Amino acid sequence: MDAKTATSTLNEALEKRNSTPLNLKTKQGKSTAISADELDLKVEIEPAIQKLTTFSLNPKLVWAHFMGMGDISLEVKESPKAKETVLKKVETELAQAPQNAQIVIQDGRAQVKAGVNGEKVDANEAWKTLQEAWLSGQREATVGTQAEAPAISTEAAQKIYQETAEKLFAGPITLQVKDQSVTLEPKELAKFTSFVEEEKDGAKTLVVKYDQSALDELLKEKNPKLLPQPKDAYYVFKSLDAPTLVESQTGQQLDAEALPEELMRAASAEGRKIELKTAEKAPELDTEALKKLGIKEIVAEFSTPYPSEPGRDQNLRVSMERITGKLVKPDEVFSLEAALGPITKEAGFTEAGVISDGMHIDALGGGLSQSCVTTLNAAFFAGLDILEHKPHSQYLRRYPMGRECTLWSGVLDLKVKNNTPHGILFQGFLKDGKMTVRVWSTKYWDVKESTSEKTDIVPPKTEYRTERNCEPSGAGNSGFTVSVDREITHDGKKGKPLHWTWTYKPANQIVCGPKP
């Protein structure tokens, strides 16, 4: 066989062999398939063929040819990148990470879950095994593994269990704070207790951890008086006069750092009962902080007249109760929708008139647009930043042109930002046929407002409507366009100006039925 034919024959044999992946497995039964492309081993065939077929008078080579040259070793070139990739795959799919022993808590009982040895694959041995199998034509090879012990042994976990978990869950524990107490059963202890892995002195171990928020909730549920909660300072309106400050109260909380030691002390104490160490818990807004917000005078007030109707009156009364006492700190945003809460019958709202698609109908929360208008104008003249509002589609004479808004839960809202260094406190009430909203604070902005004349006036026309829910109505106001401007200054420095332009649609006459 000449050199060319020999080379071709060997290449064909290698191609056929490479078409089937090599299955590498462990004695434990795990396996992974490695393709020839992944191995990327290159055999230097031509030098070996040349050595066999080249003519030479060298006595050593002549004698070798005469006696038969025996096996010729083939030179194999490997790709460092392919080797790294294959060995990562082998480690991922054949190695088994050890599993640390654990202390698990279930149904109010703690128990040790035994650790499991891992299996480690030697990278050099694995690569050598793959090379030899590939060169010899084997399609399956076995690589040895070494046992790898877990960082936390079963014996270590058992010792920790005996020192902590076994004592802790041996029975109920009674915790006392002054004259109040609560008894926790093992199943209740399990709700906030766990054992987690932690590094200590360079080695992993299991330590007991307590979810303090879960424990706080449990204690509050079982005995609300055990840990009195802090109460923020706030303002209340006992009349239509100035607000009254209600001072903050300090609460009590568990000492987080002492808690693990305290509970273990309870588990070992006589009668499994101890007096808990507690720490003061400050309110988010204490009395002094509230005083510093400067709630001391009315900086803006606005009133709108309202037609008295039973359902409408109820909605307006509830809305004024909801916004009264709402505090907006500097840079905070007030949302009227959020202040009112859910517009539901359960929340005190009822059905009353609204304008929808040009028709006057009844809907839950009807009339709340008046709360929007009155609150908007109070905020407007306080100089606050109006972030979101939308006027009515049709003009209503009881409201200022272009300086009004409507409210629709989940769709339309009034949002106002406190752009002063002082707090803002809202007060709302109904009196003498008027709705009034006041803004209490320390005066900061000087406000100048101007409203344009009506332009682009469009008289109402007659609409014929065939909807099943059609409600007839007479012609109302004309449509028109109007602009509103506001300038605010503080100590001669200008703030952000407002310029609004709005076009109202005419309030057409609605006739229910087809056009004649």
Automatic annotation (TrEMBL):
Residues annotated as domain YoaR-like putative peptidoglycan binding: 34-139, 192-272
Domain of life: Bacteria
Pfam family, any one: PG_binding_4
Entry-linked InterPro entries: Glycopeptide_resist_protein (IPR052913), Vancomycin_resist_VanW (IPR007391), YoaR-like_PG-bd (IPR022029)
Name recorded for this polypeptide: YoaR-like putative peptidoglycan binding domain-containing protein
Natural source organism: Boudabousia liubingyangii
